[in-house]
Amino acid sequence: MNSPYRYWEEAFARNIGFVTLAEQERLHRAAVALPGLGGVGGAHLVTLARSGIGRFHLADFDRFEAANVNRQHGARVSTFGRPKLDVMRQELRAINPYAQVRSFPEGVSPENIDAFLEDVDVLVDSIDFFSLELRRLLFRRAREKGIPAITAGPIGFGTALLYFAPDRGMTFDEYFDLHDGMSMEAKLIAFFVGLAPKAAQRNYTLPGSISMSDRRGPSLAAGCQMCAGAAAAEVLRILLKKPGLRPAPYYCQYDPFARKFYQGRLRFGNRGPLQRLKRRLIQAKIGGSSDYLREPKPPAPAASDSLGREISTEIRDYLLQAALRAPSGDNCQPWHFEAQGNTMRLLLDPAADDSFFNVAQLASWIGCGAAAENLVLAAGRYGLSARVKMGGTARAGLDITLTPTGAAEDPLQRFVWERHTNRTLYDGRPLEPGARQQIEAAATVHGARLLLITDRKQIREAARLVATADTIRSSHRGLHEHLMRMIRFTCQEALARRDGFPLKNLEAGPAGEWLLRHTRPWPVMAALNHLGLGKMISKISYQGMCSASAIGLLKIQGHLPSDFIQGGQALERVWLTAAALGLDFQPMTAITLFRLRWLLDGKHAFSPTHRRLLQTLWPRYEQLFQVADDSESHVMLFRIGHGRPVACRTLRKPLADFITSDASLTSPLPAASPDATPLIRIAS
User: Fold this and answer.
1) Residue 574 near residue 450, CB atoms below 8 Å
2) What residues pair up with 661 in beta bridges, in sequence order?
3) C-alpha to C-alpha distance for 298 and 272, rounded to whole angstroms
4) 448, 566 in Cβ contact below 8 A?
5) What is the C-alpha separation between 60 and 65, in angstroms, rounded?
6) pLDDT tens for each residue of 29-88
7) What φ, ψ does residue 279 adopt, rounded to 5°?
8) What is the Cα gyration radius of the chain?
9) Which of 138, 350, 531, 540 is surrounded by the most beta carbons within 10 Å?
């Protein structure tokens, strides 16, 4: 069609009925300014173009990349590396070849802001959430020029909408209570709280996913599309002079996932006492002083770097970073790495954990096996095959040799960075069909066997066993003092030490945290044990076990260090598989480690009181967990299910603390002789 009128008549015919023909003509002549073409900007442009808006001022200096795919309209493989402005201008012309566009490829700046807003009917905010100073400038200049302005923010699955009129209502800075003396973090928090006063998304936003100090936060395509719909409706209301415009301090917010709609008026904007309180709470929760800790995922080097004969230092360090994310007893991180070329040696650091639980360093060897499995999984990202050679004596370690073979990537490697312990109460819902088979199969990859209990009666029996064994934890001086040494009671201590447990990670709640702080000295704990504190702690273990979807016991044949390393590899695959299935996981290791201590050192390793207690447990334990004989080793007892998001995660020490380049890699690992004595001699 060579006539714009004929094209408009057919292309926008289905708009007629909600708007009149005369109103549609008015939209063709209207001009809208979009200062960004990312997640919301691209959706705004397409929605407004299909509404019949005929003129646009478009600004963006960025290029599309893979990270934009989840939410940005123009992001696709064919557009990676291309300027967003060029791509979206092409999209616009594909919708309306007669649309008029004024382009600003350098973005909006103080130097060109007047040109950007020249002859514009409506400004629709579409710049990055964290570009607050530019946003303030745009809204201020738009008001000075008599241009109505809209901001619609994608908040989770929904949107929040604010309209700033040029002649009435609050200004942008007045509503959000922004002034030049504030820190950028305080400004961003004020913008966040004022944009969505009701925070409908709070129940499904994961802890730690928003950081004002790091300038990061999640965003969904659904939220961007909701923004576009809400903003388009408001733009048409403005351009067509329809009733219902309510400038700030009026707001509205809709979240289809939470199924909640809010609208109202913040009489004093963010200056109101409730909004000020929210800002302080948000500052404490997601600001720079937050107690939420989480190890960031390291950037992955380019895959092409691995195609040479020797892997690059960057890839080597990435693989070792993956190894460090493995679990270990009380997060003691009991490993050391030597590296030379494509070979890495993983060795045990026996000084890292000398607790009563870590009998003969078994818990540490399990952790080393898990670290090796993480490394092998991460290597697959780069097409590297790993040959793992284990020693078989008490000096056991592992040599991991990497070879570029184009091996397929194991999907589990993506969850190396997400795997964590969840100590919250689970909701008890059954496992989804097929989940049990996948988890059990994961254990067999390394020759282990997983006994998974899903029967509610048996889960309660396991809970009673664990709860009884856990009374020993609180009444054993060595275990109590070791736990207190491993708890990091402040965020600052956790960040400085980067091992053990941040207090929030224990999910004890305010009362439990108070109790942990005040029972650090053993005499206090001993006195409270006489008053029944140990039984109270064991009740928490019982409730946690009963809330699980399943209880698992991972078994491996043999008692050599290599057997426990292999068991650690199997454990990590099981844990990662659970994570990939969306299941939460918590080790419940006390009873299995007490059993190993009993077998290795005999019953006299325990006090008479603890000895009598354990003697009553073992027959029930062996019956419930189908213990065939003493030749099998129990790697870990754990619970899985669906809990709430954790309040905090554990940290890891820097890689530099664990790695050296060592020519001793040319010497072989100590091997087990055919008649090697088992590590565990069953005590009588």
Assistant:
1) yes
2) 339
3) 41
4) yes
5) 14
6) 999 999 999 999 999 999 999 999 999 999 999 999 999 999 999 999 999 999 999 999
7) -65, -40
8) 30
9) 138
Tokens encoding 61: 């200096």
For the domain made up of 4-286, give the CATH fold: Rossmann fold (3.40.50)
For residue 189, CA distances in Å to 126, 247, 263 come to 18, 21, 21
> DSSP per residue over 472-499, as a string?
HHHH-HHHHHHHHHHEE-SHHHHHHH--
| DSSP letter assigned to residue 656 | G
Q: Give the model's confidence band at 666: pLDDT under 50 very low, under 70 low, under 90 confident, else very high.
A: low
Q: Do the bridges between strand 122-125 and strand 31-34 make them parallel or antiparallel, or are there none, so unpaired?
A: parallel
Q: What distance in Å separates the CA atoms of residue 119 and residue 102, rounded to the nearest whole number?
A: 11
CA distance 404 to 217: 36
Please give the span between the terminal C-alpha atoms of the chain, in angstroms, as a whole number: 95
Tell me the one-letter amino acid at 291.
D
Q: CA 448, CA 575: separation in Å to the nearest integer?
A: 13
613 by Cβ neighbours in 10 Å (0-12 / 13-18 / 19+) ranks as middle
Which residues are registered as beta bridge partners of 148?
none
φ/ψ (deg, to 5) at 398 = -135, 140
Cα–Cα distance list, 234 to 33, 122, 123, 239, 247 (Å): 14, 10, 11, 9, 11
Tallying the residues shown for the chain, one arrives at 684
Q: Helices 561-580 and 362-379: crossing angle, nearest 10°? A: 50
Q: List helix spans (H) across 249-312.
A: 273-286
Measured CA to CA in angstroms, residue 457 lies from 428, 454, 462 at distances of 13, 9, 9
Instruction: Spell out the SS3 assignment of 350-389.
Output: HHHCCCCCCHHHHHHHHHHHHHHHHHHHHHHHHCEEEEEE
Picking from 456, 438, 637, the residue whose alpha carbon sits closest to that of residue 553 is 637
Whole-number Å distance between alpha carbons of 670 and 560: 13
Identify the bridge partners of residue 641 per DSSP, sorted by sequence position.
584
- Give the 3-state secondary structure of residue 329: helix
Q: Would you give the DSSP letter of residue 16? A: B
Please count the other Cβ atoms lying within 10 Å of the Cβ belonging to residue 684: 5
Cβ of 225: how many Cβ atoms within 10 Å? 20
Please give the torsion angle defined by the CA atoms of residues 556, 557, 561 and 565, in that order, rounded to the nearest 10 degrees.
-30
Tell me the per-residue pLDDT of 377-416, one tens digit each, with 9 for 90 and over. Answer: 999 999 999 888 876 554 567 899 999 888 788 999 999 9
User: Are 31 and 77 within 8 A, CB to CB?
Assistant: no
Q: In angstroms, rounded to a whole number, what is the distance separating the alpha carbons of residues 325 and 649?
A: 11
DSSP 596-660: HHHHHH-GGGS-HHHHHHHHHHHHHHHHHTT---TTEEEEEEEEEE-BPPPS-------GGGTEE
Peptide bond into 166 cis (omega under 30): no
**What's the per-residue H, E or C state across 619-636?**
HHHHHHCCCCCCCEEEEE
The structure tokens listed for 615 are 């003697």
| Strand 158-164, strand 250-255: pairing | antiparallel
Q: What is the pLDDT of residues 589-623, one digit of tens each?
A: 999 999 999 988 899 999 999 999 999 999 999 99
Q: Which distant-in-sequence residues (6+ apart) come within 8 Å of 558 by Cβ?
A: 631, 633, 678
